[in-house]
Amino acid sequence: MYDSHIQILDSLNDAQRAAVTAEAGNRLVLAGAGSGKTRVLVHRIAWLIQVDGVRPWSLLAVTFTNKAAREMRTRIEAILGEPVGGMWVGTFHGLAHRFLRAHWNDAKLPQQFQILDADDQFRMIKRMLKSLNLDEARWPPRVVQGFINRHKDNGLRASHLDSGGDVIQQRMIQLYQEYQQLCERAGAVDFAELLLRTHEVLRDRPDLLHHYRERFQHILVDEFQDTNAIQYAWLRLLSGDADNLFLVGDDDQSIYGWRGARVENIQNFPLDYPNTQILRLEQNYRSTGNILDAANALIANNPTRLGKNLWTRQGTGEPIRRYVAFNEVDEARFVVERIRHFCQDQGLCRSDCAILYRTTAQSRLFEESLIQAELPYRVYGGQRFFERLEIKDSLAYLRLVSNPDDDAAFERVINLPARGIGPRTVDVLRAQARETGSSLWRSALAVLSTATLPTRASGALRRFVELITQMQQGRDGADERELPDLFQDVIQATGLPAHYEKAKDGKGIERLENLEQLVEAARRFAAEAPADDLLASFLAHAALEAGEAEADDHVDSVQLMTLHSAKGLEFHTVFITGIEEGLFPHGMSIGEPARLEEERRLCYVGMTRAREQLYLTYAESRRMHGREDYPMPSRFFRELPPELLEEVRASGVSRAGRVSKKSAAAANARANPVALAGGFYLGQQVVHPKFGQGVVLNGEGSGSSARIQVNFESAGMKWLVLTYARLKTIE
After folding, report:
1. Closest alpha carbon to 653 in 717, 577, 707
2. What is the CATH number of domain 116-186?
3. Per-residue pLDDT tens for 213-246?
4. Which of 17, 159, 497, 586 has the fewest Cβ atoms within 10 Å of its own Cβ atom?
């Protein structure tokens, strides 16, 4: 027994040991970022089996990914030195599937029922809409799919819903009912159905519920902060009054509310179970003290959190660097230059550097800068800019404008958005093309000149041909230097923005932002490329970037990802970019306290990904929504202790904080002047008619483009173009 204690507890700190050895009862372990939560969960299971004598089949351990479940089982067996048979370890969906396979008859399912993945479900809904003669433009399959899954995740059947007299809601409820009947006839269940059906069987069969309550004496859950309504209901039902829940999670890292996760589950758990003991894991093994102190200060502004304070024995570390970019291009340039310096001059691996951003649309400029710097990169958990669905759809239209004989582009968009051109019409065009050896475009023109197609199909095809023809005429009548205007006009004419805006799969806004970035990419390309056939040149440029830029899996490469994708990862050096009001926090969250709290948690997650170096950047101007915006720095900056920040410029650093007219730094600068643009010098005291008094920190450019960076006492960091700055010096 004593040897077992040593083996299981020896590598743990005091807080981890307290959690692992806790007496039976409801336990909520608040595990901060980098505090070893997986280790605690694994060692808790090993302790129960080897020390407390709990049978493996009396344990139920729930994770959120199959990879985590496999890792957990492997680590448990490594500690115990033997296989763990009979223990249920898996994801919510995996365990529900196991239950339904064992009780298919009680669940009113065929013994060999099939599971529909997200794509299978989508295709079934498309077939259903077609059989009901419903226009997909009005009833998008993704919207219907989201409606069904959202209500299943909340434990609601179609019969539980009330339209309230809303005809659209009434139709959606009918579609939910029709879809469920199709699944019943096909003997199929989707992912959301797995949990809902399991919950219903346990709820309605007291004998089965009693059996599983008796069997599972200990229920352990990882990432509890990410549970949705039906998952929490499933746990509460299975546990009953047994006080046998051991939950590990972190309310400060709950960032998936947009996909159904309810942070209230973890925050309200001590209220739902008043006898719960809360244990906190606060020692961090990942980040330096400065990073943790800043993250603690930021997240302390969330009033509803349960509360904890991360600390480390690893020392203070380097200050957090903040860079104020002139615009988004300057921001990308700075980040990539820093990474190149770290890799070439300091020997850092490229994969140790991560660029994080709030929206996928921000990745484009970083991708371009990395390509120009010849630095391999990978977009983690997502697609490269020119390979995203909405970008490829838009480019297909533009390819037809450039060359109507492009068959691949023709087939991609002929019925996108849905315009009533079905597979039979396309088959007729293909047959005509094979027979005449011509393109699909020319075949369409030929077919329309005859009575080959029915009237309705012919009308739909004619409208598509007229659309492409109008786009081509618009291109021919425009100045080739106005490439972004052409892109904007084509994208709007296609109806793609309205098509994506209707989608309620959580990606509609993201896709619209990416379309705006495509127009901005055209603007930059037109400004830099030769004037000869800009459209064809841009399309070639996009194809080359999509095909060659991203590094293979085995290549050491810079990591690009959204802040959501970064959860669970860590890097030596992290750049969090675009920290501006309206971008991060996102504009849709600013007016809603709960969503603003989630944005702050997202920033906290991003900051705690960094081990050694953390850079925070924002731009004083940024092109968004087709115009030049001048965003305010994010409120998150104001929530960080200024003594932990260090202002950075391309060639050096300067300590942040309020400036003083009589500061020693300024006096030293005057004694040893470093000349900058426009006759100013580093450390010089200046005054601005709007921003007040400040000190010069940096400068670049010459002539009419010369600008300097000034740290103002009240307005903070600003880059000012000297031609318009109206600065006066203070002697």
Report:
1. 717
2. 1.10.10.160
3. 999 999 999 999 999 999 999 999 999 999 999 9
4. 159
